Amino acid sequence: MRYRSLILLTLYLVSCNNIDSRFEKKLSDHTGISFQNTLSYTEDFNPYTYRNFFNGGGVALGDINNDGLIDIYFTGNIVDNALYLNKGNWKFDDITDFAGVSCKDNWSTGATFVDINQDGLLDLYVTKSGKPGGENRHNELFINNGDLTFKESSSEYGLDIEGLSVHAAFFDYDGDLDLDAYVLNNSIRSVGSYDLIEGQRNIPSQDGNQLLENRNNKFENVSSDKGIFSSNIGFGLGITLSDFNGDLWPDLFISNDFFEKDYLYLNNNGDGFSEESLTYFDALSMGSMGADAADMDNDLIPDLIVTEMLPETLSRQKNKQVYESYDKFTLAGSKGYHKQYPRNALQRNLGNTFYEVGRQLGLSATEWSWAALLFDMDNDGYKDVYISNGIYKDLLDRDYLNYYANDEQISQILREGKEVITDLIDLMPSKAVTNSVFRNNGDFTFSDKRLGWGLNQPSFSNGSAYGDLDNDGDLDLVVNNVNSEAFIFENHSEVENHHFLSVILRDNGPNKFAIGAKAIAYLTDGNKIMIEQFPSRGFQSSVPYRLHFGLGKVNSLDSLEIYWPDRKRSVIRDIQIDQILEIDRDNLQSESVDPKPTFIIKKTEGQQLIDFKHDENYYVDFDSERLLPHMFSNEGPCIANYDLNNDGIQDFYIGGAKGQTGQLFLSDTNGFKKVSKPFDLHKESEDVEAVFFDADNDGDQDLYVASGGKAYSTLSRTLNDRFYRNESGKFIYDSSALNFSKFFSTGAIAIGDANNDALLDIFIGERFNVDTYGIPGSISLMINRGNGSFEATYPPEFQNIGMITDIEFTDLNSDEKGDLIVVGEWMPILAFLNNESSWESISESIGFEETNGMWQSIETSDLNGDGVPDLVLGNMGQNGLYKPNMKLYLNDYDQNGKLEAIYTYSIDNKDFPIHDRDELIKQLPDLKKKLLYYEDYANQSIKDIFNETQISSSQVLEIKETRSLLFMSDSPLSYSKKLLPEEIQYSSVHAINIFDINQDGLNDLILGGNQYLVKPQYGAFDASKGWILYGDDNSKTKFDKLLPLNIYGEIRDFTIVPSLKSSDSLLLVTGISNSKIITKYVK
Fold first, then answer.
1. Which residues of 746-762 are buried (b: 16+ CB within 10 A; e: fewer)?
2. Euclidean distance between CA atoms 1019 and 286, whole angstroms
3. 3 state DSSP class of 791
């Protein structure tokens, strides 16, 4: 090992302490860096003739002369590229012409430094795009001569690829120790000609992406043989390398623009790749651009961020964003293009799979975003997020597209040959925006720091790269801009006295710079930090060959662990910090390791206990209510279980969807016997709740099945719930048991003795009006009159209380009378005390004030052991469209006899509709004249759109809470709110089960949910695979230890039963909408 020490002069520190912000923008007259990627369009070369015209250039950082200083290379599009030699003290010399690397008169895109000829000097590979023709139009490889000059040698190595290349990455994919390459090419074909045709990605194209294997220093295309797609629908804009699954082999993530999905290539131990995006991602960005991978939470597993184009604010989204219809979105999924959403995606890797959580973390909307970089910007030990933003011309401005440059007008202009294209482009709006900066708070949450860190300059930024340009122990930043000088930012984090370690790796084989290595720093405070050596990052850019560890206030390391590219490990101890440490592998011992991949195969564990698949009927809620953000007609299946035949084995009733018969599964010697009668009489009903209970006190279990859903008329008898009487083990439908006064969609039921007559009564909660979402429903109380007959009652306290999703009957005040807790959508948690002849509302007095939410489920149990029931409540979470202070305005705004529900966000104490202008006008055509321009609509609140009478006569519902929560009893009739882990808020919670799974005397929580049927502009609730939260020995009010269940789909119900094979084992039986019943061992 060699130690390159840093001496930070006192005078230097004093001067830096005068800097107001963490980052200081260096001026070109000081640095000598005046590069500017100037773009000017003409009649024959412009965004209409070349779709990537404003994509901009990249940045490559590397030490080309091994003097310990990092040099800078910029790519230009119309302008020549530029190489700046770092002379120290923030002085740089432009040596482009001397070095011979200008790529004159070519449209350059990406650049990366790589030692291709294994001489210890960094060579340079530049990718090309733009117009065909011209000298050296192909990608160029510049071999470093060691005297600051380079020789172009791409043809010698087989790297003289010509097309619409975007970037390249070098790495050893096959484990033979030399460097192979992946060259990312953007399709030369027009987008529309391949739109959503099934199977297109399997057709290779010579213009497509290329995996190039190094065979004796000659690179040969092996894409098809090694599982790499190279079709004409590959509109690639980003290459990201990482060991995503922990097997020590380099994997690939490819960002694709337009309709093609992104690719996740998992390395098959050097024998090619398997594309697994469908297996490990539930959501992808649609117009994916740059991406980066890094371990964001120090769990030694890489996470992933992918950038897209969603504007930051609601007003800009209304004017600058075009959304796909729900029908096109579902078609794309059915044709193999996955679920793609118009937003950034932050994919958190929890070892079993990825969870897309960008919306919850505030990272999903950062304008037209090209590059994402994940690196420690403040040396606190956690990687932060930098995103470069901006498009020089707003190509998606809705008013421009609608009124100035729609497809018909453009086609006519091109046919007529008029030279007005430049005039049209001049009319395009152009507004510089600030790049995005998010500080990692250390708990996988992020704070916006662009203003506080001095990175809030408006710009049109593209490629960016980080590196310690002044060797002071923090990472500086270089950004390539369109039509303005490049940004050079000096990082002044050293003034905070945060420690660091910078590592340079030297391998002893052909891969001298150890591309693909992984280093883990073990800190003395127990923290661990992992960084991978993959220089090609972000968008068209690459970072230096240094692994930078911010250490925060920790002033010593326990050890540094190196996993070399050949999957061998070295461990180094007694390391001095605050230095650049050069590690030569020749001076170390290394040993083979047996890696344990983290990703699991997507399959169900345990027994397939019940042979039933829930088949959701095809019904699109949006066809009848255009403004709904998501559907509400997929709320089954339900599961009811009881040992009906007294054989010691649980039997099950599984509810069917509309058009599907619910089934009774009775255990017998061969497993389970399926019973369809008499349930087939009601196959047109949608089963949403079911419960076994002894309604007639004859000692056996009868069955109540609730009918719900939205795919019905308000006059449909199929909405009626059903009662099936158990007569000697056979269920008989009793049509006279229930006497409803109207038809309604049921959302919840609860069984309990409401009047203390030793007979079980039924509480039935109305889910919603099937014609109009937003109208509040009521609770009906079916009083048991004996012999299983019921009388419908309608307590006034239960009328018009909300859209009810769940009810719990439990004793809140220990008076041995059952009380009622009711939850639902757009309503608070309601609690009613049973006063025998009436029901007293006590919600606010016991701690349920300000709880208006989108509640989906509730379970009660005495979690803290005080004899009073505690509450576990499922909400829609924080990773979706619902937000605190969101409102729903309900009124007949067009006076056509039908109510409309308009959703709004509260911004600066005004309520702005969240709906797309076109969507709102389709529902309310009279608004078209008032909302003529998208820009006008973008800035109008609901009070600007509708008159005072319409607003004042509207029913207004509001959300205060979107999180799933615990409410723990402090004493009888007094509750306190307790938070669940942030991971629970990644998606909705529709199913809850409370059970001591590990038999430690503490209750554990099982939670599951998801809602997929959401319009694409809002995005599905999909970032849950179900969770187990284990009770805490030290605190009965905490459930911080969580474990993913790895159950995929929209979970709607849980039950836990003993395993048929072992009484010590437990099976979790899970009902999933439109899927098989899943059984899984949880103990």
1. bbbbbbbebbeeebbbb
2. 11
3. strand
| C-alpha closest to that of 460 among 488, 432, 479 | 432
CA nearest to 260, candidates 202, 175, 303, 181: 202
Q: Would you say the C-alpha torsion 973, 977, 978, 981 has a positive or negative sign?
A: positive
Q: What pLDDT, on a 0 to 100 scale, did the predictor assign at position 205? A: 93
By CB atoms closer than 10 A (0-12, 13-18, 19+), residue 593 is: exposed
| Token reading at 889 | 């305005």
Contact, 194 vs 205, CB < 8 A? Answer: no
pLDDT at 1035: 75
Residues 6+ apart with CB under 8 A from 929: none
d(CA 986, CA 963): 9
Using the predicted structure, report yes or no on whether residue 295 has a pLDDT greater than 80. Answer: yes
User: Is-contact 26 607, C-beta < 8 A?
Assistant: no
Distance from C-alpha of 45 to C-alpha of 25, rounded to nearest angstrom: 33
Average pLDDT rounded to a whole number, residues 342-350: 97
Average pLDDT, the chain: 94
* Residue 599 pLDDT grade (very low, low, confident, very high; cuts 50, 70, 90): confident
CB contact at 8 A, 177 and 187 = no
Residue whose tokens read 């500086």: 476
Q: According to the model, what pLDDT value does residue 17 have?
A: 41
Dihedral sign for Cα atoms in the order 839, 845, 847, 851: positive
**Cα angle for residues 908, 911, 916 (degrees, 5° grid):** 120
453 pLDDT more than 70: yes
Interstrand relation of 82-88 and 91-94 (parallel, antiparallel or unpaired): antiparallel
Read off the pLDDT band of 496 (50, 70, 90): confident
User: Which amino acid is present at 182?
Assistant: Y
Q: Check residue 423 and give its pLDDT.
A: 86
Q: How far apart, in whole angstroms, are the C-alpha atoms of residue 911 and residue 535?
A: 46
Instruction: Work out the percent of the chain whose per-residue pLDDT is above 90.
Output: 89
Q: How far is CA 902 from CA 443, 526, 534, 873, 923, in A?
A: 36, 51, 48, 26, 10
Instruction: Report the chain's C-alpha Rg in angstroms.
Output: 31
pLDDT digits (tens, 9 = 90+) for 222-270: 999 999 999 999 999 999 999 999 999 999 999 999 999 999 999 999 9
The arithmetic mean of pLDDT across residues 977-1003, rounded, is 95
- Please say whether the dihedral angle defined by the alpha carbons of residues 88, 91, 97 and 101, taken in this order, is positive or negative: positive
Please state, in angstroms and rounded to a whole number, the distance separating the CA atoms of residues 1069 and 1077. Answer: 7
Q: Has residue 401 got a pLDDT over 80? A: yes
Please state, in angstroms and rounded to a whole number, the distance separating the CA atoms of residues 308 and 314: 16
- Euclidean distance between CA atoms 180 and 515, whole angstroms: 11
* Tally of residues, the chain: 1083
Q: Give the amino acid at 365.
A: A
Count of C-beta atoms within a 10 Å radius of residue 147:
9
**Measured distance CA(706)–CA(708) in Å, rounded:** 7
Task: Decide: 824 and 959 in contact? Cβ < 8 Å.
Answer: no
Between CA 842 and CA 848, with CA 844 as vertex, the angle to 5 degrees is 105
Q: Tokens for 439?
A: 């500080």
| High-pLDDT (> 70) share of the chain, % | 96
* Gap between the Cα atoms of 717 and 702, Å rounded: 22
Contact 138, 128 (CB under 8 A): yes
Q: 10 Å Cβ neighbour count for 588?
A: 16
Q: Beta-carbon neighbour count of residue 271 at 10 Å?
A: 12
Task: Give the C-alpha separation, 917 to 914, whole Å.
Answer: 9
pLDDT band, very low/low/confident/very high, at 609 (cuts 50, 70, 90): confident
For every residue of 667-712, DSSP letters joined together read: EETTEEEEE-TTGGGGTTSEEEEEEEE-SSSSSS-EEEEEEE-SSS
CB 987 within 8 A of CB 1024: yes
412's enclosing H/E stretch is: helix 407-416
